[in-house]
């Protein structure tokens, strides 16, 4: 691992997905090179303009075909990330995919299927860190999105690291955060001390960790107004416009469109000769009356809704009172695009001025549409501003003004007085801050010091701070319900990882973290290597096993059988011969069963060996003849008698007779067993001979109490040799 850490995060929105790559110094490098100020700050996150990429459409479009989300959507983003993250750092780099509004609208089963397929695709095709799919691949609620945005804004502005430079009065030094997307409008801020105490149960506890290991906590209120994003507000506005005119009216005057512009109900321009102009569906015609547009969009705030938990701002949703003397807000997304792309191109760092802004919008929207189109063609507002942007800007501007001032209550700078609590600041500082707008109640921003203010940055700041080793037993990094005490709330959301020391931490006699090496193996990056290690071990053991040879495997197996089976073992518990796999690996027959049994030498025995009793002087433990161990098998392999020399043992062509060659002896002058080459198994002084036959035939019972005649048996030549016998077939 190098001195830099990397993180990859995919913002899966409703219209598309964008991948962001971030980088920061690891704990060891940051602490080794940082001064006291750096140690008291959060990790420094870096990114580059070329480190992000967007693809269309959104992942929610794969609800009915989740198996295609990987190859058809994620592939380009993953490849892009792998190209920009150093190859030797990929396995140490976490990857997150956090989905927002579009995925929230999918049915539960479709949403689950898409998320599972995304996680599986990451695991199949990448080496990025993904220890917990539920944490790294998820649909986040609007409140979480707003909290991440709040972290990003305060991180970039310096509200966390140098609070003394951002003293807004009353000990308050953080900024509020406003966002407006297509479907929702999140808000996040830290209330003043009075409101924080009064509404403590409504706040989120956020815990971060500085480079030096010290934990810092914030209490933040977060909410989101669903249906109050720019696109959803426009849809509700058009619906109200249709209801305001009598049925049958085809041409509906719209004060929120430039003069002469005609669009259908979904907002697409209708050019002359369009079939929709002579159809039966109503369409909208711009009148360019912006004051009337403001009046028509005001009801969309739904401020008349009952407020069950006071106070409320709009839509009947509870929100603690905002003290704009100390709560200064930054707005991103539509707040930035609508105020700066057209109306403040040359003044991107200037504060939002309501009076100036409203005048600019009023003048623009009263223009003829054909003149606006000419200016777009000449790129008066830059290359990124197209006709579609100009079609929508009047409505969006009216909605933004109503949301900010009548909805949230931001003072109208330029018309309404704002308290000045800055008497203790120098004039130079005030002038600089005023240009940036950060001492005013509201300022729209896109980038701060060249870095985009994105909620994805806030998520990565949270994660990177969790990778800093904790000092003084600091609690976990993350957020959850605002509960006093050291106990984590039940809904606590971890940052997505925990700090894992580098191998260099173990050099000093394993002084730090050396005792938990086995835990780290199964966590983080190591956990992804465990399956491969296990597979390698299994293959290695199997290879050694096969190289041992058939004879050694067979010998080891039978030794194991003898160790586990005794003469006193009940029949039902006696070890049976190996099945198919056992026969292949240990050299046994394919017999379905093979029992090692002891039969007493009495007239009911199946068979006996002639004159064997005379070969042993030691009686059985029971005082009678020694028991004989016999084997039964229905296998198809060549019969084997264990311990019998191949020169002594012969099989008749019928495969039903087993003979001992009398012309050869296994050992001169030994006992009968040795002379036959048969290894005796003695239990209680008796002799047992284990034999296996190839056929499924059973030995016929004796017909009499005496020794049974065996037709065809060769003449006994020596008392030391046992006469061969023949198995009779039932």
TrEMBL record:
PANTHER family tied to this protein: ADENOSINE/GUANOSINE DIPHOSPHATASE, NUCLEOSIDE-DIPHOSPHATASE MIG-23
Biased composition (Basic and acidic residues): 693-706
Species in which this protein is naturally found: Friedmanniomyces simplex
GO biological process: CTP metabolic process; UDP catabolic process
Family, as annotated: Belongs to the GDA1/CD39 NTPase family.
GO molecular function, one term: GDP phosphatase activity
Stated name of the protein: Golgi apyrase
Region (Disordered): 561-586, 692-730
TM regions (residue ranges): 530-549
Positions annotated as active site in the UniProt record: 145 (proton acceptor)
UniProt keyword annotation of Hydrolase present: yes
Gene3D superfamilies on file: 3.30.420.40, Exopolyphosphatase. Domain 2 (3.30.420.150)
């Amino acid at each position: 691992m190098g001195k830099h850490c990397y993180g990859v995060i995919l913002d899966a929105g409703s219209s598309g997905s964008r991948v962001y790559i971030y980088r920061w110094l690891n704990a060891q490098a940051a602490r080794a090179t940082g001064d006291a100020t750096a140690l008291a700050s959060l990790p420094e996150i870096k990114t580059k303009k070329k480190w992000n990429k967007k693809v269309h459409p959104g992942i929610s479009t794969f609800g009915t075909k989740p198996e295609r989300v990987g190859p058809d959507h994620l592939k380009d983003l993953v490849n892009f990330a792998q190209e920009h993250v150093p190859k030797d750092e990929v396995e140490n780099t976490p990857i997150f995919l956090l989905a927002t509004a579009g995925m929230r609208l999918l049915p539960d089963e479709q949403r689950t299927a898409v998320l599972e397929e995304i996680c599986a695709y990451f695991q199949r095709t990448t080496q990025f860190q993904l220890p917990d799919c539920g944490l790294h691949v998820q649909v986040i609620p609007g409140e979480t999105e707003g909290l991440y945005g709040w972290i990003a804004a305060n991180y970039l502005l310096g509200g966390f690291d140098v609070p003394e430079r951002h003293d807004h009065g009353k000990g308050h030094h953080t900024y509020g955060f406003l966002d407006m997307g297509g479907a929702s409008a999140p808000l996040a801020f830290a209330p003043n001390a009075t409101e924080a105490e009064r509404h403590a149960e409504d706040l989120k506890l956020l815990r971060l960790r500085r480079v030096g290991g010290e934990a810092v906590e914030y209490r933040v209120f977060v909410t989101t107004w669903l249906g109050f994003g720019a696109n959803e507000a426009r849809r509700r506005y058009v619906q109200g416009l249709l209801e305001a005119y009598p049925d049958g009216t085809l041409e509906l005057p719209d004060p929120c469109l430039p003069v002469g512009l005609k669009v259908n109900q979904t907002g697409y321009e209708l050019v002359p000769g369009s079939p929709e102009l002579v159809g039966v569906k109503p369409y909208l015609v711009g009148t360019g009356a912006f004051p009337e547009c403001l009046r028509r969009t005001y009801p969309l705030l739904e401020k008349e809704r009952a407020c069950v938990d006071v106070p409320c701002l709009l839509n009947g949703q509870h929100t603690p009172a905002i003290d704009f003397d100390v709560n200064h807000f930054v707005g991103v997304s539509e707040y930035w695009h609508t105020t700066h792309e057209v109306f403040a191109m040359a003044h991107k760092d200037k504060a939002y001025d309501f009076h100036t802004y409203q005048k600019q919008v009023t003048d623009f929207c009263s223009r003829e549409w054909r003149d606006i189109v000419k200016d777009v063609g000449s790129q008066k507002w830059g290359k990124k501003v197209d006709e579609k942007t100009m079609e929508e800007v009047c409505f969006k501007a009216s909605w933004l003004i109503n949301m900010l001032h009548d909805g949230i209550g931001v003072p109208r700078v330029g018309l309404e007085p704002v308290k000045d609590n800055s008497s203790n600041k120098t004039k130079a500082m005030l002038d600089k801050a005023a240009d940036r707008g950060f001492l005013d109640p509201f300022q729209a921003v896109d980038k701060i010091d060249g870095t985009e203010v994105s909620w994805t940055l806030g998520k990565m700041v949270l994660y990177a701070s969790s990778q800093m080793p904790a000092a003084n037993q600091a609690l976990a990094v993350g957020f959850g319900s605002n509960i006093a005490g050291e106990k984590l709330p039940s809904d606590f959301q971890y940052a997505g990882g925990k700090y894992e020391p580098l191998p260099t931490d173990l050099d000093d006699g394993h002084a730090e973290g050396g005792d938990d090496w086995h835990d780290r193996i199964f966590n983080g990056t190591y956990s992804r290597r465990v399956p491969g290690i296990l597979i390698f071990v299994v293959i290695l053991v199997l290879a050694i096993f096969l190289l041992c040879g058939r004879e050694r495997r067979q010998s080891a197996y039978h030794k194991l059988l003898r160790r586990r089976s005794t003469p006193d073992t009940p029949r039902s518990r006696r070890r049976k011969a190996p099945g198919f796999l056992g026969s292949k690996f240990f050299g046994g027959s394919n017999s379905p069963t093979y029992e090692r049994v002891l039969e007493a030498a009495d007239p009911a025995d199946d068979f006996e060996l002639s004159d064997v009793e005379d070969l042993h002087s030691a009686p059985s433990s029971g005082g009678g003849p020694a028991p004989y161990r016999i084997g039964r098998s229905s296998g198809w392999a060549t019969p084997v008698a264990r311990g019998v020399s191949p020169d002594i043992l012969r099989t008749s062509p019928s495969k039903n007779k087993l003979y001992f060659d009398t012309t050869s002896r296994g050992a001169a002058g030994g006992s009968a067993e040795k002379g036959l080459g048969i290894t005796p198994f003695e239990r209680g002084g008796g002799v047992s001979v284990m034999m296996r036959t190839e056929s499924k035939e059973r030995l016929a019972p004796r017909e009499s109490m005496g020794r049974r005649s065996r037709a065809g048996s060769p003449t006994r030549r020596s008392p030391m040799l046992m006469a061969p016998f023949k198995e009779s077939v039932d």
